[in-house]
Amino acid sequence: MSYPSIFNDVVGPVMRGPSSSHCAASLRIGRICHDLMDGKISKIEIDFDPDGSLATTHKDQGSDMGLFGGFLGWEAYDERLVDSEIHLKGAGIAYTIRIVELENKHPNAYQITLSNPWESHRLVAISTGGGMIELVEIDGANVSLAGDRFMTLVYTDLPIQVMNYLEQAGDWDSLELLSGNSKMVLLTAQAPIDSILKEELAQIEGVKMIKEIRPVLPVLSSKNTQVPFITVEEMLAYNQDKNLSLWQLAARYESMRGDFSEEEVFAKMEEIRLILKNAVETGLKGTQFEDRILGPQSVKFKSMMEEKRLVDGDVLNRIIMYVSAIMEVKSSMGVIVAAPTAGSCGAMPGAVLGVADSLGLSEEETVKALLIAGLIGVFIASHSTFAAEVGGCQAECGSGATMAAASLVYLGGGNLNQSLSAASMALQSSLGMICDPIGNRVEAPCLNRNVMAASNSLSCANMALADYDALIPLDEVIETMYEVGKSIPNTLRCTNLGGLSITKTAKEIEQRLVQKQFFKSC
Fold it and tell me: Is 256 within 8 Å of 222 (Cβ atoms)?
């Protein structure tokens, strides 16, 4: 079983762009393509299914931009991303995008064919939410790879000979024979294979080529990966004789999952806190970006708040201001953390940082609260989804509210059970939320819903501190969210085909944006 990592699946990636499901995930898929071709690509064919989300959103929500950056070998936070198409053409790489029936019917499925004068490869991958991916096919062979290990593909006419050699050469995470359009041996490991071993492999009779693909996730997995628990119920049983706080349990989980110390876990989250803080500060200075719907609204909100011209509510108003600032940085192609997704990147961080600053709490306490949010996210990632294309906005903003609510209870001095109660109530309050971006951009009503999610988290935290009864355990609410998501029509799951997306005004906004892009390109 593959266990989620706080820093892979929940609080991350560090990225630019409107959508982690589209931008960050597509870039990671593109990075795998880059390595599969040894960085030497001449022509690319990109196929999307007409019934999937990407058929109608791939350009406006950043899938194209992310793919192009990945094909060039870039990181998700590269400042050149907004011009990645120009750079792709400058590298002499031709591409076509087709809307065709795919065998893989996941709403975020990518089928990509890559070629140069001497070789051609095809892969199929899916974006699973929050920037996470799964590679499901390479050159006709079925696989299940998350990009969390070093991968080596040996194309050979004599696979058994290669398998026998590799079995003797080292202790690998996995070693398997693949049979698709070509015969291949797939090796995964915690490090790239030794250069001498690679040279020896190349000399084996029947070996045609060797491909090395680097990990695209920051925290690696191995065959020996273990975690102390994977549900809330298991966590409570694990903690029965330990009496650890929720943030300590988060550090324990990630330490075991990633095979590094709890001090290193804390340090990694401190790095995330600094990026989040910088996003708030950047947003409040005002952001500019041509291809967007909403301007820098948080600047005026800050001014009116400081002048006491808003309805009084210091903590809530600070949260609204922080959420808005982070969302505006995202929409202006600034650096943000997808926590848990780019579309919901303001809710949890805005709530946690806003409450911590309002209460005058230390940076250390803020990091602890972020760890708690990450752990709650692990439970969601394990048993539901963060992808709006799969579960609607409840999977994004609903998850953000759930993570934040547990954290705010901690910042308010509450206990572990109260945090879990707050998380349950917050997710219960979010069930059924649809995803219907206006103008095919991840800006509105996304901003409103991030603010609503953060406000929901504050309300549920205070209710839990007052010992309101959530009734339904968090594990059961998470499972319910997944089932509800499957019941939401695909027109209301980030496809630009329903809800506010198809109102008269939304279509007028979308058309204006298209015309603006056209004249800019002329």
Answer: no
- Which bin fits 336, alpha (ψ -120 to 50), beta or left (φ > 0)? beta
Read off the pLDDT of residues 400-428 as tens digits, 9 standing for 90 and up: 999 999 999 999 999 999 999 999 999 99
Tokens 């906004």, residue? 509
Closest CA to 506 of 446, 431, 453: 446
- CA-nearest of 220, 206, 74 to 151 is 220
3-state class (DSSP) for residue 378? helix
* Strand 109-116 with 94-99, pairing: unpaired
> Is the alpha carbon torsion for 499, 29, 55, 124 positive or negative?
negative
3-state SS of 164-216 is: HHHHHHCCCCEEEEEECCCEEEEEEECCCCCHHHHHHHHHCCCEEEEEEECCC
CB 458 within 8 A of CB 400: no
Question: What predicted TM-score, i.e. pTM, was given to this entire model?
Answer: 0.95
**Residue 337 is inside which H or E element, if any?**
strand 336-337
Which residue is listed with tokens 């752990």? 375
Contact 30, 70 (CB under 8 A): yes
Tens-digit pLDDT profile for residues 14-24: 999 999 999 99
- Triad 377, 382, 384: Cα angle to 5°: 85
Alpha carbons 14 and 24: distance in angstroms, whole number: 9
Q: Are 443 and 437 in contact (CB under 8 A)?
A: yes
- 254 neighbors 5 (Cβ within 8 angstroms): yes
DSSP 379-428: HHHHHS---HHHH-GGGTHHHHHHHHHHHHHHHTT--HHHHHHHHHHHHH
Q: How many CB atoms within 10 Å of residue 329?
A: 27
